[in-house]
Structure formats: structure tokens, C-alpha cells
Write a structure and sequence with these properties.
This protein is about 20% helix and about 40% strand. The strands form four sheets. Strands 1, 4, 5, 6, 7 and 8 form a six-stranded mixed β-sheet that branches. Strands 9, 11, 16, 17, 18 and 19 form a six-stranded antiparallel β-sheet that branches. Strands 10, 12, 13, 14 and 15 form a five-stranded antiparallel β-sheet that branches. The radius of gyration is 46 Å and the shape is elongated.
Length: about 425
């Protein structure tokens, strides 16, 4: 006999546990977000403080004679120039070094006032500020010439300064508040800038320039020309009552007109079907026999590639024993190159005779392939370096007169402009 027991589920206890778990999750999320946002806020503040510092330095630099003179003119002051002049020290944001060339301040004259753009780029972050500068008569200007106070920006700066960013937007109110960098680099910058300006009150920065001059010089060039090859197939024949030895001369046709270093790079008798196919389909106008003593090319060549192969003597250099040959080095006479051929016929073993109806007699073909190598002097290039292209041959050297531009340090000019047409900056500067 079993006793029935009652089990009561405690809903109140479960509800309390769920509430505690949810509160714990929300608290963890809040703590993580606070840490993350704090890091981002600190990075943004460091970047914003450096941008504001560059703005203050730019307003001091452009507060007077360093401003452009005519409408539309611009004067640029890079971060590198600020550092070289001792106006600021090098600084970084979020561990990223700031670009000293793409970070700059630029003043542009428009009517009766000046627009100052200050751009700062550090790694992936890039922001800029616009502010205006003018005389007392400019009611819409953010700053008055001769009355720049970088330690006390007015409320008007909060409305006029425009700041954009490629990553996080920089709060414009931060840019117009009193500059106070959290990093040691920024603190050092403020000290250097303040000290430098106090030592050069009433002075302007001058830059040294050397005049750009055009001169001439002799440059040595090496000439290289293309090495090329051309294949020739000479096909003589002998009758059944052949002579054991005979000679003939070939005129090499269809070569480029301006060539040198002509030689025979290889030669062989025909062995494979592919060899005979190339000879059968050769360009007949490539060769001319100039003293064949009755020898000449039969126009039919047996009527097919297979027949041509069957009716041809085999040269000893390809495993046969029917004939051997020798070729002279190519030589030039008049407008053409020539090659002399010497043939020695041993036998006709294994070769069938072909009755040529044009010649009206039976013959044996005696084919030879050779390759002519030459330098094509119409396909050349000149180089003043050690550039040597594959497949080209050195021909010689030559000298050319060339013009070039250089900075003449004997013709020096000093200017308050950050660039000067016709001159190159030497890197020297001084306060005057």
C-alpha cells in the first residue's frame, strides 16, 4: 500500500532566481561597454587634442605676413615643417604615428578674409577643421588677425569649426575647447611651441631655395640587337647514273636587309616524316641555285610527302649511309649571302628511284636542312644601364648628349613661401 505525497512547486523562488540572473547579465554587458567606450573616448580625445593643437599653431603662424596675398592663393604648412621650425613636437594618436606630409595647415585668401584648413592623419584616422581669419571688419570671422588667443577659444568656434572623420566623427565642441593633451608627447609639444614663439616674437620664418638649372651631360649607351634564325631546305637530285661527288652554290633569299654575324647554327639530313613534311612545304623562293650544272629542284617532289620520303637519299648524320655533305660558312657578295654545298654520294641502298615526267628520267632526291643565325640590326634597343634582354646580342656603345635639371646651390634665394616656382628647397630655414 502506497502513501500519496503532495509536491508543491515554489514559483516565487524561481522568479527571484531569474531576476537575479538577468541583472547579472545586464551588469556584465554594462561593464564591458564602459571599458570599450572609455578606450574609444580616450583615443578620440587624444586625436582631437592633437588636431586642436595644430589649429592653434596654424593660427599663430598665419597671424600676419605668412598669409597669402591674392584671392585664391594658398599657403601650406605641413606637420613636418611645424616640427622642423620647433612649433610642435612629433606626436601620435592611438599608437599610430601621424603622417608629417598629409597632416598640414593651409591658408586660402577669399575676398577680405582667410580660410584656414587644418588636416591631421594618423594611421586610418583622418580629420580636419575649418576656421576663418580676418580683420576687425569681418563680422563673420572666427578669429581676428593680430588678436589670436589659442588658450581661450570663443563660443563662436563651436559653431564655425567643421570636423569630419573617415572613422569616428570628432566632436566639434572638443576641438574648440581649451587644448590639453593627455599624452606626454602633446604636453611637450605645447611647451616647445610656446617657448619657440616667445623667442621669435615679431619675426618670420624664411626658407632657403636653390635655383633649378638645366644642363647637358654625355651619357653612354650600349646597343643590343635581336638574334634571329631562318630555316632553309636545299633539295638537289641526281640521276640513276649519278656522279659520286658534286658541288653547287646557294643564294640565301628573304633575309632582312640590315644583318650581321651571319652563320650556320645547325644542319642535318632529313629523317622523320615531320622533317620531310617541312621540306615538302618549304618556301621555294628562299633559295636559288646559282651554278647547279644541271641540278635543280623538281617541282613535284614525288607528288606527296610519303613519296618524297621514299625517293630521297638518307644522310649519314641521321643513321643512313647513302650520302654525306658539307656546308661553307655564309659569305656576302653584293646584296646577298651565299652558301657553298659539297655532296658525296655513296649508294642508293633502300631508296626507290622516281621517274620525273618533267625531267623525263629517273632521279633520287638529296635533301638537306640547315639553319642560318644572324643579328637583325633593324631590331635593336639602347640602354644606359645593365639591362640585357634574352635573345639579344651586344653590338657596341655610343654616347648621347642629354639635358637634365639640377639645383644650383650657388644661386640661393630666401622666401617666406613654403614653395617657390623654379627653385628647390634645400631644407634650411631661419627666423628673421
Amino acid at each position: 500500500m502506497y502513501e500519496e505525497k503532495e509536491y508543491n512547486f515554489n514559483w516565487v523562488s524561481l522568479f527571484i532566481k531569474v531576476v537575479i540572473f538577468v541583472i547579472f547579465i545586464l551588469l556584465a554587458v554594462w561593464l564591458i561597454s564602459r571599458i570599450t567606450f572609455k578606450d574609444n573616448d580616450e583615443n578620440d580625445k587624444s586625436f582631437s587634442d592633437n588636431l586642436q593643437m595644430m589649429k592653434n599653431v596654424a593660427l599663430e603662424y598665419f597671424d600676419g605676413d605668412n598669409l597669402p596675398e591674392n584671392d585664391g592663393d594658398k599657403v601650406k604648412l605641413t606637420l613636418r615643417q611645424m616640427i622642423d621650425m620647433g612649433l610642435v613636437s612629433e606626436f601620435s594618436s592611438d599608437g599610430e604615428s601621424c603622417d608629417t606630409e598629409d597632416s598640414y595647415a593651409e591658408a586660402e585668401k577669399t575676398d577680405d578674409y582667410y580660410t584656414i584648413k587644418v588636416n591631421l592623419k594618423c594611421g586610418d584616422m583622418e580629420d580636419y577643421i575649418y576656421t576663418t581669419l580676418g580683420t576687425d571688419e569681418c563680422s563673420d570671422c572666427d578669429n581676428i588677425i593680430g588678436n589670436i588667443d589659442t588658450d581661450d577659444d570663443s563660443d563662436k568656434d563651436n559653431d564655425k569649426d567643421k570636423v569630419t572623420s573617415n572613422d569616428d566623427k570628432v566632436d566639434s565642441s572638443k576641438n574648440d575647447n581649451k587644448t590639453s593633451n593627455s599624452s606626454s608627447n602633446s604636453s611637450s609639444t605645447s611647451t616647445n611651441s610656446s617657448s619657440n614663439n616667445s623667442n621669435n616674437d615679431g619675426k618670420k620664418i624664411y626658407y632657403e631655395y636653390a635655383k633649378l638649372v638645366t644642363g647637358t651631360k654625355n651619357v653612354s649607351y650600349a646597343t643590343y640587337c635581336k638574334i634571329e634564325n631562318k630555316d632553309y631546305y636545299t633539295i638537289s637530285y641526281v640521276g640513276t647514273n649519278f656522279s659520286k661527288s658534286f658541288n653547287y652554290t646557294l643564294r640565301l633569299m628573304n633575309l632582312p636587309s640590315n644583318i650581321s654575324n651571319v652563320s650556320i647554327s645547325s644542319s642535318n639530313g632529313l629523317k622523320t616524316y615531320s622533317d620531310f613534311s617541312k621540306a615538302y612545304n618549304r618556301n621555294k623562293s628562299d633559295l636559288q641555285m646559282v651554278n647547279s650544272t644541271g641540278l635543280g629542284n623538281s617541282p613535284t617532289l614525288g607528288g606527296s610527302i610519303s613519296n618524297f620520303q621514299k625517293y630521297s637519299l638518307k644522310a649519314t648524320d641521321n643513321g643512313g649511309s647513302n650520302f654525306s655533305y658539307s656546308l661553307s660558312a655564309p659569305y656576302k657578295s653584293g646584296y646577298y649571302y651565299y652558301v657553298k654545298v659539297n655532296m658525296n654520294i655513296y649508294n642508293t641502298n633502300g631508296v626507290s628511284a622516281f621517274y620525273d615526267s618533267n625531267l623525263r628520267r629517273s632521279i633520287y632526291y638529296v635533301p638537306v636542312h640547315f639553319r642560318v643565325k644572324y643579328t637583325n640590326r633593324s631590331n635593336c634597343y639602347d640602354t644606359s644601364t645593365n639591362e640585357v634582354r634574352s635573345g639579344y646580342s651586344f653590338i657596341g656603345t655610343k654616347t648621347k648628349k642629354e639635358t637634365y635639371t639640377y639645383a644650383d646651390t650657388n644661386q640661393i634665394k630666401w622666401s617666406t613661401s613654403t614653395s617657390l616656382d623654379g627653385y628647390k628647397a634645400t631644407g634650411n630655414s631661419e627666423w628673421r
